[in-house]
Please model this.
Amino acid sequence: MSADPKALQINVMGREFRVACPENEQKELLEAVDYLNKKMDEIRDHGKVIGVERIAIMAALNIAHELLSTKLGSGFDIAELKRRMNHMETVLDQAMLDQGKLS
Model:
């Protein structure tokens, strides 16, 4: 898989956009688009906010609040967890390599 950005066609609330995205991250981007569309649909369906731009801003604020609540509220930082897991994987790979040299 290439890490070079490729244009990906996405749809947010009926509007088409082309987004540059590395091929190995396209699945995550499409999941993010689905999540954003669901949040925007919820806001639209409640009928208190009118206009796609206002709905998008409200959705962005809600998602940012969710992120900050998760990071700050519980002290859980997904990015830090991923960094630690990557480090652990590197350490394990090195240990396995060293173990193979002992044989």
User: Anything to note?
Assistant: The CA atoms of residues 10 and 30 lie 8 Å apart.
